[in-house]
Amino acid sequence: QVQLVESGGGLVQPGGSLRLVCAASGFTFSNYAMTWVRQAPGKGLEWVSDINSGGSSTFYSDSVKGRFTISRDNAKNTLYLQLNSLKPEDTAVYYCGNPVRRSWGQGTQVTVSS
Protein backbone atom coordinates (compact mmCIF):
# COMPACT_ATOMS: atom_id res chain seq x y z
CA GLN A 1 0.00 0.00 0.00
CA VAL A 2 1.03 3.61 -0.41
CA GLN A 3 3.17 4.85 2.44
CA LEU A 4 4.55 8.35 2.92
CA VAL A 5 6.74 9.14 5.91
CA GLU A 6 7.86 12.70 6.65
CA SER A 7 10.82 13.68 8.79
CA GLY A 8 13.08 16.63 9.39
CA GLY A 9 10.81 18.94 11.33
CA GLY A 10 11.79 20.65 14.54
CA LEU A 11 12.18 23.90 16.44
CA VAL A 12 14.10 26.63 14.65
CA GLN A 13 14.63 30.33 15.24
CA PRO A 14 13.24 32.92 12.83
CA GLY A 15 15.51 33.19 9.82
CA GLY A 16 16.65 29.62 10.19
CA SER A 17 16.41 26.66 7.85
CA LEU A 18 15.14 23.11 7.83
CA ARG A 19 14.95 20.35 5.23
CA LEU A 20 11.92 18.16 5.27
CA VAL A 21 12.15 14.67 3.83
CA CYS A 22 9.33 12.43 2.61
CA ALA A 23 10.11 8.77 2.03
CA ALA A 24 7.66 7.13 -0.35
CA SER A 25 6.85 3.47 -0.92
CA GLY A 26 4.08 1.27 -2.27
CA PHE A 27 3.78 2.98 -5.64
CA THR A 28 5.93 3.94 -8.61
CA PHE A 29 7.17 7.23 -7.22
CA SER A 30 8.61 8.51 -10.49
CA ASN A 31 5.19 8.35 -12.16
CA TYR A 32 3.47 10.87 -9.90
CA ALA A 33 3.52 14.55 -9.15
CA MET A 34 3.87 15.19 -5.44
CA THR A 35 2.64 17.87 -3.08
CA TRP A 36 3.48 19.51 0.23
CA VAL A 37 0.72 21.05 2.32
CA ARG A 38 0.72 22.41 5.87
CA GLN A 39 -1.69 23.05 8.70
CA ALA A 40 -1.03 25.80 11.19
CA PRO A 41 -2.52 25.62 14.69
CA GLY A 42 -6.25 26.29 14.56
CA LYS A 43 -6.28 26.71 10.77
CA GLY A 44 -7.16 24.63 7.74
CA LEU A 45 -4.87 22.91 5.29
CA GLU A 46 -2.78 25.23 3.13
CA TRP A 47 -1.17 24.15 -0.13
CA VAL A 48 2.56 24.87 -0.11
CA SER A 49 4.21 23.39 -3.20
CA ASP A 50 3.95 20.91 -6.06
CA ILE A 51 6.52 19.15 -8.21
CA ASN A 52 5.89 17.18 -11.37
CA SER A 53 6.84 13.57 -11.77
CA GLY A 54 10.24 14.24 -13.34
CA GLY A 55 11.13 17.14 -11.10
CA SER A 56 11.43 19.66 -13.92
CA SER A 57 8.45 21.80 -12.92
CA THR A 58 7.79 23.24 -9.49
CA PHE A 59 5.06 25.46 -8.09
CA TYR A 60 4.79 27.44 -4.87
CA SER A 61 2.23 29.37 -2.91
CA ASP A 62 2.88 33.08 -2.71
CA SER A 63 3.52 32.79 1.02
CA VAL A 64 6.60 30.58 0.53
CA LYS A 65 7.84 31.52 -2.94
CA GLY A 66 11.50 32.48 -2.86
CA ARG A 67 12.06 30.87 0.53
CA PHE A 68 11.12 27.22 0.09
CA THR A 69 12.41 24.78 -2.53
CA ILE A 70 10.77 21.51 -3.46
CA SER A 71 12.80 18.74 -5.05
CA ARG A 72 12.80 14.99 -5.51
CA ASP A 73 15.14 12.08 -6.04
CA ASN A 74 13.27 9.46 -8.03
CA ALA A 75 16.11 6.96 -7.64
CA LYS A 76 15.62 7.13 -3.87
CA ASN A 77 11.80 7.50 -3.90
CA THR A 78 12.23 10.63 -1.82
CA LEU A 79 10.64 14.07 -1.83
CA TYR A 80 12.23 17.09 -0.17
CA LEU A 81 11.21 20.55 0.95
CA GLN A 82 14.00 22.98 1.83
CA LEU A 83 12.71 25.69 4.13
CA ASN A 84 14.84 28.85 4.34
CA SER A 85 14.30 32.27 5.94
CA LEU A 86 11.70 30.76 8.20
CA LYS A 87 9.11 32.99 9.86
CA PRO A 88 6.90 32.36 12.90
CA GLU A 89 3.90 32.13 10.55
CA ASP A 90 5.52 29.07 8.93
CA THR A 91 4.82 27.14 12.13
CA ALA A 92 2.65 24.20 11.13
CA VAL A 93 2.49 20.48 10.61
CA TYR A 94 3.82 19.75 7.13
CA TYR A 95 2.45 16.85 5.10
CA CYS A 96 3.66 15.32 1.87
CA GLY A 97 1.11 13.76 -0.41
CA ASN A 98 0.27 11.96 -3.61
CA PRO A 99 -3.00 13.64 -4.56
CA VAL A 100 -3.76 11.23 -7.39
CA ARG A 101 -3.53 8.28 -5.04
CA ARG A 102 -5.21 10.34 -2.29
CA SER A 103 -2.48 9.44 0.13
CA TRP A 104 -0.80 11.62 2.75
CA GLY A 105 1.85 11.12 5.37
CA GLN A 106 1.47 11.54 9.11
CA GLY A 107 3.11 14.94 9.09
CA THR A 108 6.15 16.55 10.67
CA GLN A 109 5.97 19.53 13.03
CA VAL A 110 7.84 22.71 12.19
CA THR A 111 7.97 25.35 14.90
CA VAL A 112 9.57 28.72 14.25
CA SER A 113 10.14 30.63 17.46
CA SER A 114 12.81 32.55 19.30
Q: Which SSEs are present, and which pair or pack?
A:
Blueprint: E1 3-7, E2 10-12, E3 18-25, E4 34-39, E5 45-51, E6 58-60, E7 68-73, E8 78-83, E9 92-98, E10 103-104, E11 108-112
Parallel strand pairs: 2-11
Antiparallel strand pairs: 1-3, 3-8, 4-5, 4-9, 5-6, 7-8, 9-10, 9-11
Offer a quick outline of the entry.
This protein has 114 residues and is mainly beta.
Give me some keywords for this one.
single chain; 114 residues; mainly beta; four-stranded antiparallel β-sheet; 0% helix
Order of helices and strands: EEEEEEEEEEE
DSSP, total strands: 11
Helicity level:
under 10%
What structural category characterises the helix and strand content?
mainly beta
**Gyration radius, rounded:** 13 Å
What percentage of amino acids are in beta strands? over 45%
Characterization of this structure:
- This protein is mainly β and 114 residues long.
- It has strands at residues 3-7, 10-12, 18-25, 34-39, 45-51, 58-60, 68-73, 78-83, 92-98, 103-104, 108-112.
- The chain is globular, with a radius of gyration of 13 Å.
- The N and C termini lie far apart (40 Å).
